[in-house]
Amino acid sequence: MAETRATEHEQLMSDYTELWNGDYSKLEVVADSVDIYHPSAPDGELHGREALESFIREYHSGFPDFHIEVHDWISQDEVIMKEYTMTGTHEGEFNGAPPTGREIKSTGMAKIIVVDGKVQEDQLYFNQLEALEQLGLTGA
């Protein structure tokens, strides 16, 4: 059973990463009522599949080459922990900030809760201040 769950989680992680990388055909891997906790989201939270899709589309509008690479992940029961790097070039407006043309590279961690084989919750952790500094948006 544990091996079956690990295989299911491996496919889920692959599809979920592809979704973040712009393959919207993978949207079905998230629950309709998904909850996302992301430092760049409005008020730090997104609720529902449509809100997540809109947010990912906004990311790709602001960073057309936005890419997530998962370096490592582990799972136990219905919890997946992952380590990732996100990269992109700020070529469009994002969160009200005009394009800077600068590149971003930030590493982070995420805790994903899986319910009935779908992502129900994703809590992402990365240094948002570092990301803003890379874009020249802090005044520092």
Major sheet: arrangement of strands: 2-1-6-5-4-3
The biggest sheet, with number of strands, parallel, antiparallel or mixed sense and barrel status, is:
6 strands, mixed
At the third CATH level, what is the topology name?
Nuclear Transport Factor 2, Chain: A
Tell me the quaternary state.
single chain
Structural shape:
globular
For the terminal residues, how far apart are their CA atoms? Answer: 52 Å
Number of domains: 1
Class derived from helix and strand content: alpha+beta
Order of helix and strand elements from N to C terminus: HEEHEEEEH
Low-confidence stretches: none
Strand content: 35-45%
CATH architecture: Roll
Radius of gyration: 15 Å
Secondary-structure map:
Elements: H1 2-20, E1 30-37, E2 45-47, H2 49-62, E3 67-76, E4 79-89, E5 103-115, E6 118-126, H3 128-134
Parallel strand pairs: 1-6
Antiparallel strand pairs: 1-2, 3-4, 4-5, 5-6
Describe the structure in your own words.
This protein is of the alpha+beta class and 140 residues long. The protein has a single domain, classed as Nuclear Transport Factor 2, Chain: A (Roll). The chain has helices at residues 2-20, 49-62, 128-134, and strands spanning 30-37, 45-47, 67-76, 79-89, 103-115, 118-126. A hairpin with a 2-residue loop joins strand 3 (67-76) and strand 4 (79-89). The model has no long low-confidence stretch (mean pLDDT 93).
